[in-house]
Design a protein that fits this description.
By secondary structure, this protein is mostly helical. Helix content is 79%, strand content 0%.
């Protein structure tokens, strides 16, 4: 699934670009929102497939994406 890797790369690039002052503010929020949706989907697929032994990995990434989105929106 190379398109999933492309989504992760686009989200990470958007978050890195949003660190600069010249970048538009909505870029970071859109990237963070995309990462939240990506990891929410990963959690849903893990639960649907009943693969619970490694649920902590997408859960941790989901939590960091939510925190990133919250910090972006609040500032």
């Amino acid at each position: 699934m190379p398109w999933l890797a492309a989504l992760k790369l686009a989200g990470a690039a958007g978050r890195l670009l949003s660190l600069f002052d010249a970048a538009p503010r909505f870029l970071g929020a859109a990237a963070a929102c995309g990462l939240v949706l990506l990891y929410l989907g990963a959690l849903a697929f893990h639960l649907r497939a009943r693969v619970l032994y490694n649920l902590a990995f997408p859960g941790f990434y989901f939590a960091t994406a939510v925190a990133s989105l919250a910090l972006t929106v609040s500032s």
